[in-house]
Fold this sequence. Notes:
Shape of chain B: globular
Number of helices of chain A: 18
Helix content of chain A: 25-40%
Strand content of chain A: 25-35%
Distance between the termini of chain B: 35 Å
Number of strands of chain B: 6
Oligomer: heterodimer
Strand content of chain B: under 5%
Largest interface: A-B, 31 and 21 residues
Amino acid sequence: MNSEYMLKAENISKAFPGVKALSDVDFCLRKGEIHSLMGENGAGKSTLIKVLTGICEKDQGQIFLENQLINPGTAEEAQRLGISTVYQEVNLCENLSVAENIFIGREPKKKGKIDWKEMYQKADQLLKESLNIDIDVKQTLSSYSTAIQQMVAIARAVDISSGVLILDEPTSSLDNNEVKKLFEVMRNLKSKGMGIIFVSHFLDQVFEISDRITVLRNGQLIGEYQTNQLSRTDLVSKMIGKEWGESSNTRKKNAPKFGERSFLRTNRLEKKGSINPIDLTIKKGEVLGLAGLLGSGRTETAKLLFGIDSSDEGVLVIDNNEIKSMNPRLAIEKGLGFCPEDRKVEGIVGELTIRENIMLALQTKKGMFNYIPMKDQRVIAQKYIELLNIKTPSMEQRIENLSGGNQQKVILARWLATNPKLLILDEPTRGIDVGSKAEIRKLILELAAEGMSILFISAELEEMVACCDRVIVLRDRYQIGQLEGEQMSVSNIMEMIAEGAGVVEAGIK
Amino acid sequence: MRQALNNFIQTKIFWPFVALVLLLVINFIMIPGFFQITVKNGHLFGSLIDILNRVVPLLVIAIGMTLVIAKEGIDISVGSVLAITAAAAASLLQTTSVPIAILLALVIGLICGLWNGILIAFLEIQPMIATLILMTVGRGIAQLITGGQILTINNDAYGYVGKGFLLGLPFAIYIGLAVFGIILLLKKKTALGLFLESIGTNMSSSKFAGVQPKKIILIVYMISGICAAIAGILVSSNVSSADANNAGLWIELDAILAVVIGGTSMRGGRFFLGGTVIGALFIQTLSTTIYSMGIRPEIIMVVKAIVVITVCLMQSEEFRKLVKQLKWKKKVSEA
């Protein structure tokens, strides 16, 4: 075995009930390199990291650290072996001082008591030497910005680590200057011989900082590449995959049937730190797609339209009425419906029955004291169970007991019952079986043909091309372009995502 | 028939119901005349009637508490609100008429609930802490109202609420039934029940579906406040006085216990008003039993604790599984 490898994972496989999260994945980290791990949601990145850090037990495969076979069973054990991780959310104690956070659990001691003087001195030294930042380590962590907090987390990780550092989406809550600072720190650590695994959804950052890129897709290793030999377009196509084929030219165009009247329009609508100004128009009976990688601002846009998040600036117009401040209740009144991305957390109400889950939005539309009689509830629930082919023994089953696809159909039923004019579908087909996927796609086309407007968000570009009349492309929280008609193809969308950097930079300036 | 029985065993109410029946059976064996009901002056008397009468303040508060707990909240200020409203009613009676005194007492309960609701819904203070404020301050307010003394009430019309009889039964029982009926109606005939169970189970999903959690939180704490006020009126009327220090002392704990025994989870979600009724009856029956069996006062609390632990264990599915496993293992080792 080549000894330049610090960390080497071979043939890692891991299955969760119903899903093969990783199959036969190899991963190598060399001394003094920054290695990015890329892949869309569900590709297996986080599972691989969890296996490496001992949070998840692997089903198969071996991990070598400095040529020693290791088998970390817990996060603590991995840490003791010298693999430390900094997660997306800073998991430090905000109410403790910087020094305490760095040395928590391994405080320097003198005669059984904590040696505060030495602790402060060591913390100070560590931050100065390895990260080149100079702050008062006696202050509580909460008095510093998120970026500094992130640095403290990294300082702690570096101090524990014997050479391997995993950074899981460290930049997602940082602004551009803070990212620069972080990259300086990373380069500094690299020059000291550390191996860093970097996970991020931001393409530009990945290209800027990493030496190598490993791409995963659907739990499989697509390949390991040197960054300077890989183009952005290649990377995006490797992440998204092309195995779907161009079978999607059967799309029928509905939009002209209902004229050019717009149902919803935004003008420079934005929320700082979430999505930069966006202009979009959705016509009656139109399926508008929002394409982009994860974190590009797709979901953020949807949440803004539905009033889950409130906008800082810009205008939202629905049916020629300008909406000052949107909230979900008002959105429902205006005829919007929203199937959220995270079905478990934001969609289903687990303890309640299928009938109750279907009735929820219609009931809020009608108001609390305008209770829908049980007889009508049953009729409505039954109608949608049949229409959407929801497989359940009874409408009084808890929704928790259904499969993912059927849960998704119940959420769709919840919104269809309100008879919406615009339905926002955020990843409606993610994590559900192939049969349900096809049914949901068919339904989208049927609804649009009946005159419903649909805002469709999906990571599967083939699906977008097949369903949408028009696609707006987002990248790094900027709207970078639009494709329609003949231009709308998977390769064109990917190209736009990959090469839209100019637009983004112009936006920053 | 068998199917119906099976269904009943599956319900949350089954185990508390069994415990209540067991307790009654013990009473039947140990205390002669426990089930005897006599008629004096056209009024019914007996231990059972006594239990039904005495349980009402606890029951009313526990019903309000059920809604609060369904939202994954808690209201430990109810005892103090009871004391405030009792003191307010007693002091108002010195100057105003009975209906106005009662009405104002109810409004005070509503305001107390509104206060809790605002702290929790809009300032997002944890329910335990938010209601702890009123729990602590409340008794002080009540003392200010009574001037630090026990106010006595000499008003027959007011006394009727807590001591009077209607159609042979204590009037308080009707109040308890009415509160139960109204809340049941709210649950079954408005969407309050659906919204409450929805936000109690999954707050963010509910928001995405357009439910307005803040509004619901305000409503349930206000209901809890009114329920505490009703209990305050009942208690002060029954003992013809308002004692700022001791009226409704620790009743919040009994109320929470009644809700939990009744099968509503402290984690929120589904709530069971019928279960709460059984839970409250169980607690009151237990107290009455302990006193009428002549258990020494110094060990009353211990007995109560043991019984409550037993009921909670019976209710716990994990514990029942454990018992089953133990039995099974025993059988295996015998074989």
